[in-house]
Design brief:
Helix content: 55-70%
Structural class: mainly alpha
Radius of gyration: 26 Å
Shape: elongated
Mean pLDDT: 87
Strand content: under 5%
Number of domains: 2
Low-confidence stretches: none
Order of helices and strands: HHHHHHHH
Number of strands: 0
Distance between the termini: 73 Å
Largest sheet: none
């Protein structure tokens, strides 16, 4: 591997990392899947942020560090460098570090045009990055809660009453085979 090579995390990779993070937290907190505890509640109990929010915070802190470097340092030259010539391949270009930084600045509610002024002062930059990451985490949790509520509402409204209802316990079985299977185990059903 090249000494100056860097890897960008794509959304798919961040989701997989977050899934592992949440599974590990569930195991540490002794939360079983049968308990049906949502991810937002797991993070709240652990007192931690999700992996995407942690990555936003770390990338933005590194961005401020590189911005405060001297101009001849290689990381700063690479961050601000532009290619003079060259040809692109056909298709969508690969994600660059700059692209992920733009996405992170937007998620942390930091102005993309004036971030350099804030990053010049280390204490102010760290404070704004931490506040922005917490805000991004809060917005992510609100969005997850709304998405879960909408999914639950869709699932509840999608099930219209069917004609396959147990005559003894009034349970809606939704299909003929389901009613037949239920009849064998229904405690109120008469024994044949």
């Amino acid at each position: 591997m090249n000494r100056f090579e860097s890897w960008k995390t794509y959304a798919r990779q961040e989701r997989r990392l977050n899934g592992f993070h949440l599974r590990s937290l569930r195991r540490l907190l002794y939360i079983k899947w049968q308990d049906k505890v949502p991810n937002t509640e797991v993070l709240k109990r652990a007192g931690l942020m999700s992996i995407p929010s942690m990555l936003i915070q770390r990338r933005l802190r590194w961005l401020g560090h590189v911005h405060r470097m001297e101009t001849q340092r290689l990381p700063r030259e690479i961050l601000y460098g532009e290619l003079r010539d060259g040809a692109r391949r056909v298709g969508r270009p690969l994600l660059r570090f700059k692209d992920s930084i733009k996405r992170d600045l937007k998620a942390a509610f930091i102005n993309a045009t004036s971030w350099e002024d804030t990053a010049a002062d280390r204490v102010t930059w760290r404070h704004s990055v931490k506040a922005g990451a917490l805000r991004a985490e809060k917005d992510g949790r609100v969005q997850a809660t709304l998405k879960r509520a909408a999914r639950k509402q869709r699932a509840a409204s999608a099930r219209a009453p069917s004609t396959y209802v147990c005559s003894n316990c009034m349970r809606d079985c939704h299909s003929r085979i389901g009613l037949h299977s239920h009849a064998r185990s229904c405690p109120a059903h008469p024994v044949c």
